[in-house]
Amino acid sequence: MLFNSLDFAIFLPLVFILYWFLFQKSLRLQNFLILGASYLFYGWWDWRFLGLIIFSSLVDYFVANALKKECQNFRRKLFLAISIITNLGLLTFYKYFNFFIDSWISAFEILGIDIQSNTLNVILPVGISFYTFQTLSYTIDVYRKKLEPTSNLVQFMAYVSFFPQLVAGPIERAKNLLPQFQRARVFNSDFAMSGIYLIVWGLFKKVVVADNCAFFVNQIFDSSASYSSLELLVGAVLFGFQIYGDFSGYSDIAIGVARLFGFSLMTNFLFPYFSRDIAEFWRRWHISLSTWFRDYLYIPLGGSKGSRFNQIRNILLVFLISGFWHGANWTFIIWGCIHGILFMPLLLTKTNRIHVSETRVIWRQLPNMLLTFILVTIAWVFFRADSVTIAYNYIADILSFSGSSLILFYKSSKMILFSSIILTSLFVMLIFEFITLQRNQSEVQLNQFSAIFIVLLIVFMGVFKNPSEFIYFQF
């Protein structure tokens, strides 16, 4: 079920009414409703994968409660291993099985050995990368004795499957979200209204910014050899804004919908295109994933402690695995490696944390922001391209300066219209975000007037015919 669909426009008010008007006095019934609504929301794509998320939830529920009772170190490690192997085993099979088989065959073909193999048609379950990491963090925290496991199965399964953030995050930690299922929720009109404003803002970024950018991005990336260097450059920039509007828009809607039901989710984006270096970019982009890797991979590996070699190894491993997490394609792995390489100068000069606390944009730092955006945009080409070869040729064609034509964007009245919409929407988005950043706020906060303005932009400039899925559904 898509946030930008008629189905969800009917689903959300119905669940909201039942939740607050029929089940308000019963926490147990509210949690049952959330669980049922979440399974309906998830099963709307393919009901067969409900069994997968239920199985994963049950495994981690019983493992966590076994960890609580067990004192012997060896057995505790064994229980944790059951959780890790089960979750990562399912993720590996459904997401990477064909990738490994195809890569194996390609490796032998390089050696001149022809291997005939029929790969399985494995369908990727929506959101498996997100809820797998969410349940893993729960069992790991229980193992580390940083979290008390819950004995309430409904609360735990509702935490794993909570529909606003189920399929594309934020990847919530149990210590933040699970206690919210354990205490009574009271309707707060101001909190709910802030949620509505976030939903409006998220829809604007998705259906106006992202989906309009996609009109040109898809054309350019699908036949990149047909366009000039300048058109290719603009296409790469537009994809940067497309994926940001698409993914951060989803997070805004998810956080907003959660607030309608009295839940608070973590901030997942903090205006990343105002970053002054790559380190700051990753503190602002997909925060729930980057902090997950920090807490459950980078720090256990040793983090920034130890020798310089270990520090470099840990950073490169985190970015490599982060790229692989995004998808079963070498393009994602190279995308992750590029960010790891870009991070190296900051690590070696110990300047990777100079923008930790400072959030306001200082005008003299504009060149740093522009350089960071350019580097991120180059890496996005690998993220978007269908293959490494296509990505390499795309960048090579940009650098060849083979032409400065922009005829694609004005060759017809339709193209001019889309170009005008994109320029207007990007201007509005960046202005709102810049003002928010200068106020040291973590999210765009609309008022009644600005919300009406954004709604009008959505109505007149949004893409609603054949609504597109969010990009991160494929991860």
Radius of gyration: 23 Å
- Give the CA-based shape: globular
Largest sheet: none
End-to-end distance = 16 Å
In total, how many domains does the architecture comprise?
Answer: 2
For the secondary structure, the number of strands is 0
* Uncertain runs: none
Overall structural class, as computed from helix and strand content, comes to mainly alpha
Count helical runs: 17
Helical residue percent? 55-70%
| Nearest-integer average pLDDT | 90
Beta-strand residue fraction: under 5%
- Give the SSE string: HHHHHHHHHHHHHHHHH
How would you describe this structure to a colleague?
The longest helix is centred in the first third of the chain and has 38 residues, at about 75-110. The chain is built from 17 helices and no strands. Helix 4 (about 75-110) packs antiparallel against helix 5. The radius of gyration is 23 Å and the shape is globular. The chain starts with 5 loop residues before the first helix and ends in a 14-residue tail after the last helix. Helix content is about 70%, strand content about 0%. With about 475 residues, it is mainly α. The chain folds into 2 domains: about 5-185, no CATH class; about 190-275 and about 355-475, no CATH class.
